[in-house]
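Forwarding the complex inputs:
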Amino acid sequence: MMKKISKKDMNRFIKSLLEDYTVYAPVNTDGIFSFKPIDNFQGIDPDYQNSKKPPKEIFFPQSETMFEYEKGKVTSAEKVSRKRILLGIRPCDAKANLLLDNVFAGEDYQDVYYINKRENTTIIGLGCRKPLSTCFCTSFGGGPFSKDGLDILLIDIGDKYIVDVVTDKGREILTNKFTEASEEELKLAEKIKREAEERIKSEVKIEGVKEKLDTMFESSFWDKLSERCLGCAVCTYLCPTCHCFDIDDEAKDSQGRRVRNWDSCMFPLFTLQASGHNPRPTGKERMRQRVMHKFNYFIENYKRAACAGCGRCILNCPVNIDIRKVLKEILTG
Amino acid sequence: MREREPKILAFLCNWCSYAGADLAGVSRIQYPPNVRVIRVPCSSRVNPLFILKALQQGIDGVLVAGCHPGDCHYISGNYIARRKFAIIKNFLEYIGIEEDRVQFAWVSAAEGARFAQVIKEVTEKVKRLGPIKKLVKTRGI
Amino acid sequence: MPEVERKIREEAKNLLVNKKVDFVIGFEEGTLPLRVSPVFIYKGDDTEKLIWNSFCENNLAVYLPEIGDKKVAVVAKGCDTRSIVALIVEGQIKREQIVVIGIPYQGMIDRRRIEKEVEGEILEVKEKNDEILIKGDVFEKVFKKEDYLYSSCKTCKHRNPVISDILIGEEIEERTQVDEYAEVNEYEKKSVDERWDYFNKEVNKCIRCYACRQACPMCYCEECFVDNSYPRWIGKGLDSSDLAVWHIIRAYHQAGRCVDCGSCERACPMEINLRFLTKKINKEVKNYFNFETGLDSATSPPLATFNVEDRQDFIDSGE
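Prediction (whole assembly, three chains):
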């Protein structure tokens, strides 16, 4: 269903949603965008390209209280108190959320914390008119205007948005301000889409990577790849599909809480055992794990790679390790 | 309403300041009861993390006391400690922790009266600041 | 090809071919404009990969504590050589294992500042004498290098390598007039609450990725205090109290170690102003102990030693 709404009306619409929903939108703090609850809305910042930290944190926060207790009384924190709107996420990140669903809401395991947030959130995505040179979403079946994982997709055509309503959940929140889009407007939207897709020059060949990796566990490739890696967690924490965590008790006397924090396979502590033994003792094993998990194990388990092509790891790695180059080397090396 | 009494944590070196506190006690010198004492083998045993941990848990003021320079039981422990404290003390002020939250003193085993005086002054200064708000961890520890 | 780059390749090749070193750590072309990537070169033929430009921002000394018994040549700017000296002083590396390829340099370009000053994505970069030419799909712009140096480079007083086995290029004149602590001094004038608010705002950007720690040559501890589980010093989440303690202690542990190379800040994805913390530590180390990191390998680290006459104006001594 294709509708349209003027940007002015869109602002009013979002403001009206604030009454019943907590609205998360890209907020600019000293030049860095992140998804935060807003209390007013004046349109999406024209400088917004994508958030630094991926919106996975809306469903899977970096630091999340699971329950709190005091003298035997336990309060669970699994339920969100209000319904949520997640506004302005990019199609790559929406696609990444679908990958996370495999892990947190899949056949093997149902994570109440994740599912509760996911079910209570309506996602309004914003198509990318100007993808970056580091964007390679098209390599993973996505695109700058892909609808996967979105309830509504917005296409910016200047003074208004073309509103592509994808799911019933998306339809439910619409008001009468959303009107039928004209033939002409739809054509314009098509043109914008096509132009954006043409802008994506980065391509990663994923076919055959899994099979190649099957043979590479003992390869010296990992030594070479990991030698320049500093061992920080930028790539994993900023990745919209990485989902490893650590559970920690923070307690004092008879009160405390259990917290789930993001963790990273790039840290030695991630696999350090109580005995002192570490099965991934050096950067080599840790780098291998990261690449293997994304492009081999995940495919093995869920039939697709754990990458959405958002390019965050490429842009933010302090030593410029580029996953596109890594994948190419795996295939050709 | 009664004024909230500040909680103060004092790290006292075993050989001088702790003995000084002992002397104040046996001499029946009165001093404010706000101080909780942790006895350490030497002032150099005090890792700045101890101080931060205390503040994080809502302690209103921290005192570290050790032997006067030259009197260290381990010859030079307090000299080493002095260097660490110079940095952390200045740094905490720099980032906006009130100057009097963290204090240092030299108190010898013979200075019972001085120990009481130091505690009195530390308590007064911390009281003036009011309860600690910065750096306190409100949920879990 | 710039002369410096040619010489680096030549020297690196010599070292490798004559088996003077097992490998050379330098920089290679990055995959993005304004970026380079550290590279480990093992064969003489591969030295063609080595490059040198105003974006070689990483402190390569960070890799040295991990080299084991290998002999290694490393490309180093002034600040990087100071880190090497500091690592030698702290017994983390052996002087005889390291061949320092020292490069006097005017400073590295702050890529983020340039990115912020153009509309749209930068697609191409050219460096020409004192200028940087930037091209995007709809713009072209020229930047004067000197105006876009990293803040740490702007106030640097040791642009020439402190030690080097092979010096590439001419030594340059050191700036003696810059006031490297001007920002710290300004900050100190703020009220105590203003200082706390700014500190708190900055540390709350932190996502605990530890890129700052990992990028720092002096953060070589086998297990960092944040990773200790017994005792477990601080929580691992995003509680602002934990974030504050992490940044306080990280900076404090840099006392007598930080050379103000700026690597921590460049690595930080959240663009936290980390130098305003370490710079204060450096200032007090200079004030109290008259010590500057990495200038000579004979002086002990300041916190591992003492002077009977050390200042103690902050201690109640009863006098």
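The longest strand of chain B covers residues 8-13.
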